[in-house]
Design goal:
alpha+beta; two-stranded antiparallel sheet; 2 helices; about 20% helix; RT_dom
Length: about 80
Amino acid sequence: MIKGVYDAPKIAVIVGNEVSNLTKYLCGVWQGYPASLILYNFYINDIFEGVRGVCVPGLTSRIPGLLFADDAVLLAESSAD
């Protein structure tokens, strides 16, 4: 089912009464699609895997990044990290 939804998807944009031509939907999950939340959770669970993160004074664990809603920030002490 999921493969069928994401296999060569196309979208159009409506502005006023005008509809754009179809264009390929190349990345991300479909907004409003019921399975999108589940797919996002599968992805986001592993996003910080292997990220060393940064030391924060007063904390014993390193912080690999920050999440808020569907935004993510990876934290590193250098570009090599």
